[in-house]
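Bit of a strange request maybe. I'm writing a small parser for structure token strings and I need a real example to test against, not something I typed by hand. Could someone generate the tokens for this chain?
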Amino acid sequence: GAETFSLTATDVSGVMTLASGISTILDNGTPTGDDPLDNDTPVMTVVGESVQEGDVANFTVSLSNSSEAQIVLKLTPSTENGSAEDNDINAVPVVTYVNEASQIITVTADNDGNYTFPGSVTSINVAVQTTQDSVYEGAETFSLTATDVSGVIAAASGISTILDNGTPTGDDPL
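Reply from user aminoacidic:
Good idea to test on real output. This should exercise your parser:
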């Protein structure tokens, strides 16, 4: 975002009048002149994985670089554009990140369903529980969309695949 600073000139001899000025550094992510590298707005990606039915599907939400401000994301698991059905996933994910002290921090959604992260975070894990059932469905897909609430960072989506080989696993005959 924009940053403001001031400069004050003083005359230690007392002969000249003091002068000061304020300047603003604009950081809106827009490249200037011939410098395409000036665009430091983070780019978001979402990568899913393939899991067995009943396991947790982990999505990695990555940001290309950190931000000075907190990042507020809406994280939406969905079966809308996939082949999975609503009852194949838990729509409330478990969201974590690793902080600068290498501790795993769990983030809870606010009342609007948004998750807030420190600006230093560039990797977020979103765990979506899949549902083990007794119906053979074959491979099914669902997605996770991450949307920056401020609208500065472009939204991104990733896909996970639920594998259902129809074979009971462990002690679970279903």
